[in-house]
Amino acid sequence: MGKVFVAGVGMTKVGRIFNKGYKELAMEAVDKALNDAGIAVSEVDYLVVSSAFSDSLLNQVDISSILAQEMGIDVPAISVNTGESSGVAALEAALNAVRAGKSNTALIIGVEKLSEFPSAKINSSFSHVLDYEIEGIRGIAPINYAALLLKEYMKRYGVKRDDIFQWAIEMHKRAEKNPYAYLRFALDLDKARNSQVISSPLTLYDVAPLADGAAAAVLVNEDLQTTIRTQPVEIVATASATAPPIYLRNDMLDMLATKKALERLRTTVKFKMGKDIALQVHDSFSIYGFLALEELGVCGRGEGVKAIGDLQYLNVGGGLKARGHPVGASSLYALDETVLLMRDSFSGLRYDGDAALIHSISGAENNAWLALLKR
Amino acid sequence: MAGSFEEVRIMKNSISIFWRKRSDFYKIRLTKCLECGKVSFPSRTKCPYCGSKNVRIVEASGKGTLVNYTVSYYRTEDSDELQPRIIGLVKLDEGVIIPAEIVDVDPDSLRKGLRVEAVLRRLKSDDPFGLIYYGLKFSPVLK
After folding, report:
1. How many CB atoms lie within 10 A of CB B106?
2. Among partner residues B41, B88, B123, which is closest to A137 by beta-carbon distance?
3. Angle, helix A161-177 to helix A142-157, in steps of 10 degrees
4. Calpha distance A112→A133 (Å, rounded)
5. Continuous H helices in chain B
6. CA–CA gap between residue A232 and residue A7 (Å, rounded)
7. Domain regions of chain A by residue span
8. What mean pLDDT do residues A186-195 have?
9. Which of A262, B56, B59, B67 is the most buried (most CB within 10 A)?
10. Composition of chain A by helix, strand, coil, percent to 5
11. Which of helix, strand or coil describes residue A23?
12. Helices marked H in chain A — which ranges?
């Protein structure tokens, strides 16, 4: 099987971007990614688009064909939707296309444009990442499950409410240095502690802000990687799994989909998981950040709070928490940040390790996706 | 939600989804797998644990114990008049844990282990131009 490399990356700033629509955001990211790779748009022969809510919030079905038209290309164009983890799913679709010989130069676009509507409407759409016929109709939202998990986690491991804010504080530190991040300000314990309760005991600063943004990446095959001008980063493997809803799990703190995806990833590629690996974990709510670190084996159960201070290469862009969560684009931001980190530097950080892992989930971990990158 | 004439006239909810699923909204129905033996919520045609279609749908008593809960101020399109709401996990007497809204209770009096039972309440409404949709929520068992 031929190797596949990331030749170019491009991101827009994340935020509430009222003066740009989803097409402008997507084109901005695409132009940056193609420019980065030194590839002309006419060389793109495959397009994968990840957008979780284009249908429900932008009234746009088949967004990939519309964006292909916008770019003036006539390639195979597919849309991928696995909820919040759509970005890594799109990466896998593009990776498969290149590996299968269907594409030499595949373009991936993650784009989300949420701020067209008030929060209540966005929140309704976001809640639909859960099972609508079971949870949606009964008014149960992802944030409620995160609150229940947080409560259980604090009780079981004797973790204090203040300790959990360390996640947000650390993520804000990283976002301050990331020019593309949404929340580029320092957060202290007092401010976090005094933020409003959204779903007890979870407060505003435990929640990743839903936002607008677009991130793109260009994948090329082995033959082309020598012709690109950037230092290539290889996508070695992706793996994923679904899992039963959390109320059906023996232990709700187990990230069953993540566990299964990790097992699958390890059957295809060897890598060492440790505190020094460049890692992007899904932190739509801070509790998921801690649970992911523990499920992925970075630290022991209940030790996430103690470990986080030592994790220099964790969520280098600020994570969903502080970079912001443009849902379908979020894990492609994670990809782009990681590629820049491995290539040269990102946010003033250099990374000398040879492997990096990206983790993404949707809802209350209805699915989990992983991608392993190597220099 | 206040809005234009058109917005309020159009029904937000699907009558057919509610009609088809009425048994699962008016009763608590569980899926008992005859292959792996596990019982799950709600009724499904296949076991969510093992995928077997050798399942039997059984009705739960509607009584259980509160195992975890959160007081939610999260706003969605449906929540304007219902703030705050309590979302909990209820362990049914049949041993299955289900997510549910907890009603008719002061949040301060909630505790793990509280005995609760299913009660019929309004879930959603397209009033005044459509239907009011009902389903089961949970409230403390009256002594």
Report:
1. 8
2. B123
3. 120
4. 25
5. 5-9, 15-20, 22-26
6. 6
7. 4-118+210-225
8. 96
9. A262
10. 45, 20, 35
11. helix
12. 22-37, 54-58, 63-71, 86-99, 119-127, 142-157, 161-177, 189-193, 222-225, 256-268, 286-295, 304-307, 319-323, 327-343
Q: How far apart are CA A323 and CA A208, in angstroms?
A: 8
Domain ranges of chain B: 5-140
Total Cβ atoms within 10 A of residue B128:
8
**Is pLDDT of A35 > 90?**
yes
β-sheet bridge partners, residue A217: A9, A108
SS3 A265: helix
Residue of A nearest to B91 (CA): A247
Q: How many angstroms separate the CA of residue A120 from the nearest CA in chain B?
A: 4
pLDDT tens digits for range A196-230: 999 999 999 999 999 999 999 999 999 887 788 88
Q: What token pair was written down for A159?
A: 């973790």
CATH topology of domain A4-118+210-225: Peroxisomal Thiolase; Chain A, domain 1 (3.40.47)
What per-residue confidence (pLDDT) applies to A188?
Answer: 97
Closest residue of B to A153, CA-based? B68
Residues A181 and A190: beta-carbon distance below 8 Å: no
Amino acid at A36: D
Let me know: does A288 contact A171? Beta carbons within 8 Å: no
Give the model confidence (pLDDT) of B41-100 as tens digits. Answer: 999 999 999 999 999 999 999 999 999 999 999 999 887 666 799 999 999 999 999 999
* B80 → chain A, closest CA residue: A120
**DSSP letter assigned to residue A177:** H
Which DSSP string do the residues of A24-76 spell out, in sequence order?
HHHHHHHHHHHHHHT--GGG--EEEEE-SSHHHHH--SSHHHHHHHHHT--S-
The amino acid that residue A183 corresponds to is L
Q: Which chain A residues are Cβ-neighbours of B71 within 8 angstroms?
A: 197, 199-200
In 3D space, the residue among A111, A283, A123 whose CA is nearest the CA of residue A212 turns out to be A111
Cα–Cα distances (Å) from A326 to A110, A168, A181, A201, in that order, read 9, 17, 11, 25
Say if the Cβ atoms of B68 and A148 lie within 8 Å: yes
Give just the sign of the alpha carbon dihedral A143, A145, A148, A154.
negative
Residue from A351, A375, A352, A370 nearest A360 by CA:
A370
A17 has pLDDT over 80: yes
